[in-house]
Specification:
The chain is an alpha+beta fold and about 180 residues long. About 25% of the residues lie in helices and about 35% in strands.
Length: about 180
Amino acid sequence: MNTTIESSFEQLQEMIKDIRFAMFVTHAENGQLHAWPMTTQKAKMGSNQEDYEHDKLWFFMSRSSDPVANLLANPHVNVSYADPKSATYVSVSGMARLVDSMNQKERFWNTMTEAWFKEGITDPDLALICVHIDSAEYWSVREGKLAQAGKMLKATLMGERLTEMGEHGKVTPHR
């Protein structure tokens, strides 16, 4: 039987911290879902860790882009992460909003972002997006590939259905 584990936002952030790209999913005007590869922004070193909000994700985007237009029309978004090497997969649902605070932009600004915005942090096309996490689910296999293959082979040979392969967890706010 597959066991679902309740986890914290801190554990979620730890899981995704080394996954460089996420797929940012919005609802288009016609109702279709669209996904774009995005980099989750990390606060600069030296930022007050007490101010770090584990229930939020941050992204820089072009203000004139489709993802921003979509989330302004419908703020319900999904952000998904996949790291096949560590067999970690995360799906985050939340509400996105545009943040116009220069202080917040400075917390996340970095040289990689600079390549996308020719006028730097003051570029009028620069949009900082905050996703407030409503809920998340993750799937993680902590066993090595050989152990995974052994479980699959055993289930096949025994004529059984494979019911568990690693850990499945949920993160929801405690309200």
